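Two proteins, back to back. First:
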Amino acid sequence: MNSNTTKHGTAGKAPKSPAIQPTSQKSPAMNTPKASDKATDNTQKRRSTNISIALLVTASIIAMGYYFLVVQNSDTLFMAQNKSFFTTDETFLRECMKRPGGFINWAASFFNQLVYYPALGSTIMIAFWAASLWLSKVAYRVSGSWMAVLSLPLVCILVSMIDTGYWLFYLKHTGYWFCATLGYFFATLTVCLQSYTRKWVDSVILTAITALSYPFMGWYSLLALLYTAAMLTFRPHKKYGKKTRISIISLPIAAAIAIPLVFQPYYPELRPEQIWTSGLTFFQSDALDSFYPQLPLIMLAIIPLTFSFLPRTKQAKANKPAITIPLTIAILAASFFWAKESDFQNYNYHAEMRMYCAAEAQDWDKVLEEMSALPGDASREMVLLKNVALLNKGEMGTKMYRYNNNGDNPKNGFDTLHVHMVQVGAPLIYYYHGKTNFASRWCIENSVEFGPSFDNIKLQARCALINGEMDLARKYLDILATSTFYKDWANKLLPITSNPELIKEYPEFDNVRELWSHMGTTLDGDNGLCEMYLLNYFSNTMNKDSKLLQELTLNYAMVQKDIQLFWPRFFQYAHLHAGENMPTHYQEAAYLYGHLEPQNVNINVMPFDTNVVDRYEGFRRLSQSLLAQGMDAKTVGENMKSTYGDTFYWFYFFCRDIHSY
């Protein structure tokens, strides 16, 4: 017996091979391919489900963006760019860089001008959102099943835009509409880069670069540092020792605290508490500091801090479609509901902006169409814009009372922001009344308070041209000539600055020039009340040379409901329009006042139209009948509005409680 025999056991007995087993026994090895195939199939199904969820969320965000921005708020976006400003001149860049976060404000202002075409600007914004969504997936290494959670910051950005209301006119942040989009994209990109650093040295370098971006990115640079710290806290660091890991995590937190303090001496205009929030928009007016519209921006800052808690790709095997799919649908539904509830869809708010833009473009028919479509009372700005349109169409005397003239204060909905007409639409209204000095004055004051805007600069250029201040007009037009969408408008008017007589060849200036040329250029006080100033000024004005100005003064005397003011202006109008038919509303006022105070003027010698007399008699009989039934004056007015609401008779007796702001 040799050594080999004793080594392997009993001589002559070879060990049984696992491959030679009785057929009646089950072999685990034979089942392994089936189990592996089943696991592979489950993994592929799970992966396919996650991809489907990711694509569903992306498509939903894109659809929500287009619906709420382009479909619901195109007029808001257009006004937003109209009230913002951008120029490639380095002076504007230097002005932006006077505060931390200046570069992102400059870049946001550049993109903001692109919503001149709302669909174009919205498409670019939504593209940033989609990129941020997928960058966050990569940065935090989560599966597609969590994409709905990753989309929440984008919903916050959307809500922050569509619930601003009249704060649109009071924002002191010219790049507001794109700032959060670009800032979040920057922060997410930073976390993504940090997430894939392999060496601790690279991580330290990237953190230092992010910290040093504070003068350019401001608030969003600090958010990037905090997001990075949160991500590093929960990311595995197998190659790092405990001390190295603590150092890497602590570094961005320390930088977020220390860097603003380091840069503070370079921004002496900032208060100490502002150094950490520079670049974050605050909603403040002279009498209100509102937190509500800022809430979505605060949520935008906080929500991504939780993303590092989400399961990583390797842990996604525990994700079950029975849970993730309903969760995704619930988050998307809640997001849509939140956006729908936040969307500021006050009818007058949107109609007012459309009327303003139409008046600015001298599309008078569009102004009147908007006024005709109003379902309720208009704002006083809308009433004045309507009057301007009728004046320019020569229809004040025949159609002024066909439209709603009650007027009411703007409703902001979610807070008590007090809207002043001089900060919203008064400069344009002053301009069309020939009061170019008042228009320029409020353009300048609003620019100082809220920053320059294309709207103000265009209006100042027009006023300067009419005032004959050609050097000043050239300055404004040269600025607009560097813009993307207003350069053609500016280049069209620039020749006037070299040859002032050319202004006579531009019919858009004719009516304003006529009114301006027959009034003094004194800049007295309006106490911030545009309508009251115009009412008092024009109702107490007389002019024997300008038919346009005299018609304006007659109408304001009628709005005043002052009989003593009316008659001299009425007779002056009749003198200027000798041989012409007297407009219906002027006849109505004369016929009514002649009956109210017959001792002043004998109206029996006046040739009134039969329709004017008949409607007065019908108005008188119906009002007396309704009063005899015990109705109060307000109820009588409501009952008579459908029949006589287009007459001066109804306006005189029932148009009350006019709110001017």
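And the second protein:
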Amino acid sequence: MPVTPSATTIEPSEPMTKQHYNVIIAGAGLSGVGMACHLTMKAPHKSYQIFEGRDAIGGTWDLFRYPGIRSDSDMFTLGYSFRPWTNKQAIADGHTIREYINDTADEYGVRDNIRFNHRIESANWSSEDSRWHVTVKKKGQRKKEVFTCDFFVGCTGYYKYEAGYTPEFPGRENYKGEFIHPQLWPENLDYSNKRIVVIGSGATAVTLIPSLTDKAAHVTMLQRSPSYVASVPKDDIISVQLRKVLPEKVVYRLARARNVALQMGVYNLSKAQPKLMRKLLMKQVEVQVGKDVDMKHFTPRYNPWDERLCAVPNGDLFKALRRGDASVVTDHIDHFTETGIQLKSGEHLEADIIVSATGLDLQLLGNASLSIDDKPVDLGKTVAYRSLMFNDIPNAAMIFGYTNSSWTLKADIGADYICRVLNHMDETGMKQCTPRLHDPNMKTLPFLDFDAGYVQRALARFPKQGIKAPWRVKQNYLFDLIMLRFSKLNDGVLEFSNPTPKAKSLDTKRAEAASASA
């Protein structure tokens, strides 16, 4: 394990101390820890440092603390390929996932290479020395530090950690009760015997509602339009039985392969036969909610997988509805009142607590800015190469998982590909790898083909995708597995080079001298 150099913090007005690592990773969540583990296994000669803006490992799974927080993907595919998930839960609770990530970090020595409460503000590629110069600010301090690296990897997920997305609700200032976004759930909130309205119909809402019924007087899900909701087993009974006769790693690989095939099968059938899949999904809901629940609340206006399916472990949402502990209202908000929400239909929902499960506010790279030779880079004007890198940006990658499957499936093979690239550059004596878009007239499409509102609001900030490989983002695990793990690196698009350092201009030298004497 590489030795981490000590840092020297300095005032912003002083010339900044530069410390060098082979790889800098932004974020210590599921992707960042996974990236570090892949480096440890496949490029152990590389020094690396993770900068994490918060004070803990886990990313999403440490940030979200609302009641019932859980995965909406099975853990045999959300878990790392190299470290078996041994818990019987296929759909796992948030704290269990957090423990899994932390245990993985400790097993592979990752924790010693993390600087907590350090947020990356910017990264500037310098052609002079073929390195990224990364500016970092520690929480609670005005001082900044600059670190350099040969390769920069963004593992910050795709949404803003500071706050989620909340629409402008008319009259919200008049509401006298408690208003909460799940991303900022208050610690030790007492909701005993409270009337709760949860605004939203996505994964967060369907998770919260059955969990809140344990103590609340009643919970109402208020939605503008329904989402597809599918009941899934919480425990993997097949794997539990196979563990009695097979080694853990074998059981894990079998479960992972089975669930990948199932996820792809459901997605492909949804796209090829949307009417059939819609009928199947509607039928399973109808059986579980019973005759007392109007099916209009579970009949979406869009086709399956135009937005992400919501998983309901062991049908817990449907059980809460059948018991009468929860209810669903499909309507539009007119305005908030002092005691609740006035709907456009004329109905009024009384609420002691209103939860706005209205989605995320998306951003890339933890809102850090990128530049090349001090010229700002707009990622929204770039094209993604192999869903990982960007045209004309050297030695940089961004881990971005699947929207139609488990995030970590893509993160694993993406990290593996980055290690291949790093090792190839060492073997060939190259310092730089840069995707080059040789056809500037190639038609481009949005990076994500996904209709969810939180995605549509942010598409302008995301890179584009092309209409052909290696610029195409297919959201297909088998396609990506072949493309990232088995395809040749010298594909005529990824340019490997060993450029001669650019000499500093006279103006640059004068500016640096002025900064040093300030």
